[in-house]
């Protein structure tokens, strides 16, 4: 009897491992894979550039951006809105011109009809009842000048033209690229990270594993540590510090300033790969499927 292994093909049962391996090699089906730590953005990195922020700013929803990157994004969206608005105004102007041309054509048609009616009234020509119209000739669509009314697919001037797609009025609001909520430049809040003071560590800021710490408790900040930003000063503290120290009397521990619930903005984390930190830890790749 043959020995069964993971890659054994002598068995009568099509195992799950063989099915998964064949699906990966065939290019069909859906492939799911757990996201690792290297695939997750760090808590102090910009949500657009995915690099450590030089001038960090935060939105009301807690998403961190580099100031230069988010302002460039806002300016590009404003330019795009201006371009779309010009195209929309041009379309509206063309519609007005077409409506005016149709109104003039209708007016001219009514005028011509009235003139022809007046000419028939004052005409001295008498039409007898015995006269009958001649029907000796064959009736054809191309007779009496109707050839010009029929579309022709081989004559360029008579080929039917496709209608131009309509342009919808653009939305003047700018939306956050992450949360898809309205975003304004004046609502961005500057963030102040507290550097870890370690004279023995002479690495660059990007190469350091522990870069920042809590402004109050001096705990090391990382993706596994929930953080919050104090809106009046922009200092970054841990959620534990907020719950145990700040929320007791709602006073800023560094400036003794009165705080409210809206002044505490939770910082959205990139994640660590653990289920307790992130909601989405799986990446799915959709592939074509074969149907019988």
Automatic annotation (TrEMBL):
InterPro entries in UniProt: NOSIP, Znf-NOSIP, Znf_RING/FYVE/PHD
Keyword field: Coiled coil, Cytoplasm, Nucleus
Coiled coil (UniProt feature): 78-113
Record has Nucleus as a keyword: yes
Signal sequence residues: none
Pfam families the UniProt entry points to: zf-NOSIP (PF15906)
Locations listed in the record: Cytoplasm; Nucleus
Residue ranges occupied by any Nitric oxide synthase-interacting protein zinc-finger domain in the UniProt entry: 4-78
Example of a GO MF term: ubiquitin protein ligase activity
GO cellular component, one term: cytoplasm
Top-level division of the source organism's lineage: Eukaryota
CDD domains found in the cross-reference section: RING-Ubox1_NOSIP, RING-Ubox2_NOSIP
Location, primary (coarse class): cytoplasm
Family, similarity comment: Belongs to the NOSIP family.
Protein name stated in the entry: Nitric oxide synthase-interacting protein homolog
Organism in which the protein naturally occurs: Anopheles gambiae (African malaria mosquito)
């Amino acid at each position: 009897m043959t020995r069964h292994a993971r890659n054994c093909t002598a068995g009568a049962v099509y195992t799950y491992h063989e099915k998964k391996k064949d699906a990966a090699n065939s290019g069909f089906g859906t492939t799911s894979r757990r996201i690792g730590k290297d695939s997750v953005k760090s808590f102090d990195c910009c949500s657009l550039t995915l690099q450590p922020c030089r001038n960090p700013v935060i939105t009301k929803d807690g998403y961190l951006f580099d100031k230069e990157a988010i302002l460039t994004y806002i300016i590009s969206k404003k330019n795009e809105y201006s371009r779309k608005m010009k195209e929309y105004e041009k379309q509206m102007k063309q519609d007005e011109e077409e409506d005016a041309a149709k109104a003039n054509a209708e007016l001219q048609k009514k005028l011509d009809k009235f003139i022809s009616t007046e000419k028939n009234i004052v005409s001295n020509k008498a039409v007898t009842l015995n006269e009958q119209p001649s029907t000796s000739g064959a009736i054809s669509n191309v007779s009496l000048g109707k050839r010009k009314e029929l579309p022709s697919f081989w004559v360029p001037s008579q080929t039917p033209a496709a209608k131009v797609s309509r342009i919808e009025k653009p939305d003047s609001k700018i939306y956050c690229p992450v949360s898809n909520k309205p975003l304004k430049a004046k609502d961005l809040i500057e963030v102040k990270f507290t550097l870890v003071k370690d004279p023995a560590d002479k690495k660059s800021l990007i190469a350091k594993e522990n870069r920042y710490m809590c402004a109050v408790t001096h705990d090391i900040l990382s993706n596994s540590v929930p953080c919050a930003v104090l809106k009046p000063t922009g200092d970054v503290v841990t959620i534990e510090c907020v719950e145990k120290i700040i929320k007791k009397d709602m006073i800023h521990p560094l400036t003794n300033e009165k705080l409210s619930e809206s002044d505490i903005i939770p910082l959205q984390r990139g994640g660590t790969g653990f289920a307790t930190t992130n909601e989405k830890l799986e990446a799915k790749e959709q592939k074509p499927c074969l149907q019988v």
